[in-house]
Structures are given as structure tokens and as C-alpha cells.
Amino acid sequence: KAGVTQTPRYLIKTRGQQVTLSCSPISGHRSVSWYQQTPGQGLQFLFEYFSETQRNKGNFPGRFSGRQFSNSRSEMNVSTLELGDSALYLCASSLAEGGFNEQFFGPGTRLTVL
Amino acid sequence: AQTVTQSQPEMSVQEAETVTLSCTYDTSENNYYLFWYKQPPSRQMILVIRQEAYKQQNATENRFSVNFQKAAKSFSLKISDSQLGDTAMYFCAFMNNAGNMLTFGGGTRLMVKP
């Protein structure tokens, strides 16, 4: 079974631009979560989507948004990019069938904002 | 809100020896899950071991074991017979019983020396 895939793997943008990152979960997984990893703030939860609905949200400004499609693929969008948005963005998928659900992580998208 | 603290930013160990990584957490919940994740230089997050809070028995996975002290809110990871491939960042993480959101500690960079 294929793992979680994220595209693109690397991205360079300039301040003020917007960016869209994509995550394809493991087949059959219905939940997708997004995390931001930076040297200063560490790993922080952005949001989680389940059945096309945002179920949980972290403490990030409204410039960060996401969505999930009917095939469980998810995208996250960051508008009006700032230098501080430079980070590794990780997505993770899980079955989300009650009780414990292991989260499987993708390889990440490295975003650099110049 | 939950917090996870890893007090050792960096550690090193000789190959074949044993090392223990520390983690403490704070929560008011009674049912939750704790995890140790490994992030090698490739940046791929890999689940090493998990512990359900309602289980008194400490989890073990081959060379990896945990010391879970619920009352003290402590969750340390012991790596026995350290191997060069264990060199990585290790993150302690918390998940409550209700959601799919992981709260991560700041990480411990482990170097295994030949």
C-alpha cells in the first residue's frame, strides 16, 4: 500500500504570494492532519480534516486554510506569505475509526519564503 | 491545553550502549495516548512506540521501551543496543482520547557514535 504523498516536495515563494500544498493520504484513510515544523516553534498542529470537514484547528492565523476532497486528498493554502511561514509542512493520515488511530506522516513540503 | 516538554535538546551515545530520553507532559485528562516519533535526516516522521494511558504495563518494541509514570506525567524512552541508524531527532507526543491532534515536545537530537 502506498504511503502518504505530498507535493511539491520543495517550494520557493516570495513575500505576499500565496501557496497551495497537496497531500494524498494512504488509501482508505479518511483523516488528514497538517503540521508546521520550524526550528523556532517546533512542530505545531495546523488543522485536521475528516470527511471533507475541518474537525480540529490549531492556533494559526486565518491566512492558513485547508480543505479536503471526497477522495480524502487534502490541500492547504497559505495566503499573503510572510518570511516566518518558511517551514517544513507535514501531513499525516489516519483511518479515524474510533479509538486509537496511528498517524502516518508524509515526507513533507519544504517551503522557503524570500 | 496540553504541553509536552523534552528537557534534553541533544544527547549522544556510543554504539551498542543504552540511552534514555526524557519527556514530561501536562494534561488534566485521564485517558490519552503518548508516542515517541523518530525523524531521521530524511525528515520522514516514523512512529517508534506508543503507550495508552489506561495501560499500566510499559510498552516495548524490540530495542525500544518506555517508562510511563502516569502520576508523575513522565514518559521516557529507552533505546538499548544503540545502532548508528538510531541517529535522529526524537519527538515525544501527546494525543487526547477525543481527537486526532498530536502535541509535540521540542525534540531531542540523538547522535549514536561508532
> What does the largest sheet of chain B look like?
6 strands, mixed
Which residues of chain A sit in consecutive blocks of at least 5 with pLDDT less than 50?
A: none
- Oligomer class: heterodimer
Radius of gyration of chain A: 13 Å
Strand content of chain A: over 45%
Q: Please report the total strand number of chain A as a whole number.
A: 11
Give me the number of helical elements of chain A: 0
* Rg of chain B, alpha carbons: 14 Å
Task: Considering residues with a beta carbon less than 8 A from a beta carbon on another chain, report the largest interface and each chain's count.
Answer: A-B, 24 and 19 residues
What structural category characterises the helix and strand content of chain B? mainly beta
Distance between the termini of chain B: 41 Å
Shape of chain A: globular
- The number of helical segments of chain B is 0
Q: What is the element string of chain A, with H for helices and E for strands?
A: EEEEEEEEEEE
Classify the helix fraction of chain A into a percent range.
under 10%
Shape estimate of chain B: globular
Kindly estimate the percentage of residues of chain B that lie in beta strands according to DSSP. Answer: over 45%
Mean pLDDT over the residues of chain B: 94
H/E element sequence of chain B = EEEEEEEEEEEE
Tell me about the largest β-sheet of chain A.
7 strands, mixed
Describe what you observe in this structure.
- The complex is a heterodimer of chains A (114) and B (114).
- In chain A, a hairpin with a 2-residue loop joins strand 5 (42-50) and strand 6.
- In chain A, strands 2, 4, 5, 6, 9, 10 and 11 form a seven-stranded mixed sheet that branches. Chain A has a four-stranded antiparallel sheet with strand order 1-3-8-7, with no helix packed on it.
- Chain A is globular, with a radius of gyration of 13 Å.
- Chain A has 114 residues and is mainly beta.
- Chain A has strands spanning 5-7, 10-13, 19-24, 31-38, 42-50, 53-57, 64-68, 74-78, 87-94, 104-105, 109-113.
- Chain B is an all-beta fold and 114 residues long.
- Chain B has strands at 3-5, 10-14, 19-21, 24-26, 32-39, 46-52, 60-61, 64-69, 74-79, 88-96, 103-104, 108-113.
- Chain B contains no helices and twelve strands.
- In chain B, the strands form three sheets. In chain B, strands 2, 5, 6, 10, 11 and 12 form a six-stranded mixed sheet that branches. Chain B has a four-stranded antiparallel sheet with strand order 3-9-8-7, with no helix packed on it. Chain B has a two-stranded antiparallel ribbon with strand order 1-4.
- The A-B interface holds A 31, 33, 35, 42-45, 48, 50, 55-56, 58, 88, 90, 92, 94, 96, 100-103, 105, 107-108 and B 33, 42-47, 50, 52, 91, 99-107.
